[in-house]
Specification:
alpha/beta, 434 Repressor (Amino-terminal Domain), Rossmann fold, transcription cis-regulatory region binding (chains A, B), transcription regulation (chains A, B), transcription (chains A, B), 13 helices, 6-stranded parallel beta sheet, elongated, 42% helix, homodimer
Chain lengths: 340, 340
């Protein structure tokens, strides 16, 4: 697949561009004072030849390591890894390498990783976590951006999924289908992903004078709880009787998938009798569900990309402060939209 | 959570150990000729103070970067990321940092990543992929170990999951339960994960004179295909009639989960009438399935750790050649074992 790389030397670039090797170095490292035309000519020559500068030499001349740390505390990686991959994707475009450091929710290990990244003289660090609950900031002498799990310090730069916008889109979608008897099923009651989404749904329905049916139900993030919650919502309803709801909004695709299974077990048709929505657009849940789930894609790769952009800006001396919301996307499928 | 790291200097370690800073450097970098007792005293002092050597300086003095590249070509990451995390885990123990490079099944991007890792002077590279099918080797001037996806070159070092052992364990388990009318459902027919597992199951049953029921069924890696395959196995069987099989071995948990759903839809009891097995021990599938799946855990984190060990040995001048099989583990749950 590959020829042995590294055969193109700085002198080759210099020869093609008609300049000295030190001018090549200045042009590619953005140092020294060169005419823009010269800089452009060198870059063109470097690109044409596929020149890859020696990263260690580049690092010593520019006083930057062109390396960023990606610190994850998520053992499963279900949410943080798409963020990490999105960030890595954005960094590659900027010729930045990504050092991966996974702490698996272990503070001692995290501390070790932080020290190691500092010792490596990374230019900055992106910190991701396994929930959207705020986390303690790390103390390091370089820029940090928090992605998915925001920092508890409002002066830090954080990028989090806009769950309020996501669940508001779900609420408007259900209203547009004429559904007005909506129940809400969350995951763990102590987590922002459960409570924020509940508040957003209730507020969106309230704008049209609609109140949620019953209290919000909180439990755990599992299909099992999704099935149980359906039993709580339906009570001792028998087939043929009027249903207490015409829609159930679940706070995750796992919950919604369990919910669909239980509704089918009990002879309730989705979406004809009860529309169902999930959250996460997790393909193996949302697409395998019967019917496939209408859900919210938090676009975690874009969130990771945005975190990388903010970090690169901070490294360039333009730090951001506060929490930025990353936009989600409603994905409509058969669990609300009829035959699919 | 953290004090600002990096405050302990090499002179602090030297003072505590009662030696010169250059002796500290030699002791920690394993260079020069020191008495073992001196080396031990320096290491103890460094550990006590939590001294983290400047990685760039360490790198220049030792002519090693103490950095390894983790090259993944898997866009979803379902299989390669556990491998990557296992490798990263093992590397951290050896004070090695991991540069993450994800190519998303794009050869041009992979080539860019390979050049970039070479330019970074990584000490070695672990290459992972999204299937167990052999892949083309990369050409680089440092050691490489292939994990999960083996190299097509038998002289390279590869670590792959031992699918033959995994499916043989399934076969023996089914025989131990007295099941002898076993059907096999694979994923894509052109992939080793489908064909190797079929061959292993057939061979294991044959040792006891048992033949698989019907031809192996191949399709796609989805729950949908798992459901369809059950219809193909059962044919126009009606509840109450004798069943053509007493077990179905699926080549993945997704397939098995779809299979369980369809068996239940058709009034067939799992495991009383038909035992079901999956493969992968993918928690969100295996545990959410009704009943939970007996399956094979390929222990991908251990596979990644082993790849890291082989790479570190190769960096130390002890390269391995050929393909090493990483052992799986049978996990017994309700889909074969009765009430769970």
């Amino acid at each position: 697949m590959a020829e042995t790389p590294g055969v193109v030397r700085i002198t080759d670039v210099a020869a093609l561009a008609g300049v000295s090797p030190s001018t090549v170095s200045k042009a590619l490292n953005d140092t020294g004072s060169l005419r823009p035309a010269t800089r452009a000519r060198v870059r063109e020559a470097a690109e044409r030849l596929g020149f890859v500068p020696d990263a260690q030499a580049r690092s010593l001349s520019a006083r930057r390591s062109f390396t960023v740390g990606l610190l994850s505390t998520d053992s499963a990686g279900r949410f943080s890894l798409p963020v990490v991959l999105g960030a890595e994707n954005a960094l590659v475009g900027g010729q930045i390498s990504a050092l991966l450091a996974t702490a698996r929710h272990d503070p001692v290990r995290e501390q070790h990783h932080v020290r190691s990244l500092v010792a490596r003289r990374v230019d900055g660090i992106i910190v991701t976590g396994r929930t959207t609950d705020p986390r303690r900031p790390i103390q390091v002498p370089m820029p940090v951006v928090y992605a998915y799990s925001p920092s508890q310090d409002p002066q830090d730069a954080s990028v989090v999924p806009d769950d309020t916008a996501g669940m508001a889109a779900v609420g408007r979608h259900l209203l547009s289908l004429g559904r007005t008897r909506v129940a809400y099923v969350g995951g763990r009651a102590d987590q922002a992903a459960s409570t924020l989404r509940h508040a957003a749904l209730a507020a969106t329905l309230a704008e049209r004078g609609v109140t949620l049916v019953g209290e919000p139900l909180f439990g755990e993030w599992s299909e099992r709880w999704g099935r149980l919650a359906v039993d709580l919502v339906l009570g001792d309803h028998s087939p043929g009787e009027p249903l207490p709801v015409d829609a159930i909004a679940f706070a995750s695709d796992q919950l919604a998938r369990g919910g669909c299974d239980r509704l089918r077990d009990r002879g309730v048709r989705v979406p004809q009798d009860v529309a169902v929505t999930g959250y996460d657009d997790w393909d193996v849940m949302a697409l395998a569900s019967r019917p496939p789930l209408t859900t919210v894609d938090p676009q975690l790769d874009r969130l990771g990309q945005r975190a990388a952009e903010l970090l690169l800006a901070a490294i360039d001396g333009r730090p951001a402060h506060g929490t930025e919301l990353s936009p989600p996307r409603l994905v409509v499928r058969g669990s609300t939209a009829g035959d699919t």
